[in-house]
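Sample entry copied in:
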Amino acid sequence: MNIILTIAKREITLFFDSLMAYVLLVVFLGFSGFFTWLYGSDVFFAGQASLQSFFTAAYWILFLFIPALTMRTIADESKSGTLELLLTKPVTDWEVIAGKFLSVMALVGVALLLTLPYYFSVMILGPVDHGATIMGYLGLFLMSSALAGIGIFASSLTNNQIIAFISSLLAGIFFVLIFNIISQQIFGPVGVVINYLSMTDHYDSISRGVIDTRDVIYFLSVTFLGLFFASASLSKRNIVEEGK
């Protein structure tokens, strides 16, 4: 665990040293604040003390935010050669992947914590459904976790950050949009399975304040599979490098 935390701290430092963290945090807060307070179905026009507009906006902003965070996790280090140097240390592939994942989720956690003033501001406007708000934040965190797993896996497949970003984004589009659209056109057991793969349905269920173990298991499963395949990809790459 100490090794994972060390890798995570190193990654967080790299995020802030490159200014990427600052840029993404400002963009996230700027857009989420704009769509929550100023645009469309904002809090004031809604006529009720609810952060639903924030959760809807944050969902789509994080959909773009996460691939931008994960695109460099493996791809950049692989291109620069620092990944090979890291793997010469007494660390396993899984520890490297877990450390990088933890750093991404730490930054997501910081981004969400910085939006708490929205919550306190809405409390001034009227009575708030605290349970639904907490579940909304939990839904955003779980969704980010699943997308982070997918993004790190995409980053492990290439040395190019742009390709990693596009691959992660395309995979995310399937989970967020395509599976939901397809499931509405197909009936029977196949339609049920495809609908279960839709990330949006699971997020909507949690953000409404409903705790269903199927939703939690879904997000944790996608996260684990993404990280598992990333670790396998890293191991395969190391075998190929050793064979040269």
Observations:
- The first helix runs from residue 2 to 17.
- Residues 4 and 86 are 12 Å apart (CA to CA).
- Residues 2-243 form one domain.
